[in-house]
Amino acid sequence: MVSIHxxxxxxxxxxxxxxxxxxxxxxxxxxxxxxxxxxxxxxxxDPVVGYKLMVKIAQxxxxxxxxxxRDLHEMVRTPTxxxxxxx
Length: 87
What we know:
This protein is mainly alpha-helical.
């Protein structure tokens, strides 16, 4: 599974520094660091690369959205009712 952390706002078009500060791995993982300034420069110099990167990132985010929406729907559709707390 591909997971993206620390992606800048508006992908390759602005120099803002919004980043995720903490990530947790729930299984053995490989981590890759990318120089954000160099990647941004590459996207600006080669719009085709920038577009392809933006499409891939958008796909990852949309899959996360669909999963979250499905999970939320399941929680609302079949709520668990607790009538008394243990103890």
